[in-house]
Amino acid sequence: MKQQYLELGKVVNTHGIRGEIKIQPWCDDPNLFDQLSYFYIDGVRYEIKKNRLHKNCEIVLVEGITNINQAELLKNKIVTIEREMLGALPEGTYYIADLIGLSVRTKDGQTLGNIVDVLKTGSNDVYILDKPKEKPILIPVIDQVVKEVNIDGGFVTVELMEGLID
């Protein structure tokens, strides 16, 4: 089931004494915060007054947070937004939140495990599968391996290359 809210990043620190917060973004689009007017932390809506990118983090000033003491309370909290705020993804791309928990199986029906995380390597993503009482299985997200992603059906179909799992 698709989640209503998607994680956008984490408040990693405060910035200055006027209530700005430093957010480590978890998204691929470095300009995403420029397009937002608000976000949520612990279900509370925060209106963005101003923001800027600084050393791979987003420095954000929000309505209602006016000093460092208030900003400190947001440290280590997860920043979320409503799924609808992001619009449609290009074909063949997925939100990590939608992939987590999907069952991964081979074309002949063998279940390999469930996706527990997605590793971003730069060249291609890697699905990390949880296999109870065994080492995790790493599946490269490349056309030769991943044949189908069915979010609504709850599964991913793969064709294993020789030597990928031993």
TrEMBL record:
Q: Name one GO cellular component term.
A: cytoplasm
The signal peptide, as residue positions, is none
InterPro entries listed in its UniProt record: PRC_barrel-like_sf (IPR011033), PRC_RimM (IPR056792), RimM (IPR011961), RimM_N (IPR002676), RimM_N_sf (IPR036976), Transl_B-barrel_sf (IPR009000)
Single annotated GO MF? ribosome binding
Compartments, as annotated in UniProt: Cytoplasm
Q: Which residues form the RimM N-terminal domain?
A: 8-84
Gene3D superfamilies, per this entry?
PRC-barrel domain, RimM
Keywords, alphabetical: Chaperone, Cytoplasm, Ribosome biogenesis, rRNA processing
Residue ranges of every copy of the Ribosome maturation factor RimM PRC barrel domain listed in the record: 98-164
Similarity comment: family membership: Belongs to the RimM family.
| Function in brief | An accessory protein needed during the final step in the assembly of 30S ribosomal subunit, possibly for assembly of the head region. Essential for efficient processing of 16S rRNA. May be needed both before and after RbfA during the maturation of 16S rRNA. It has affinity for free ribosomal 30S subunits but not for 70S ribosomes.
Question: Subunit info?
Answer: Binds ribosomal protein uS19.
Q: What is known of its domains?
A: The PRC barrel domain binds ribosomal protein uS19.
Q: What is this protein called?
A: Ribosome maturation factor RimM
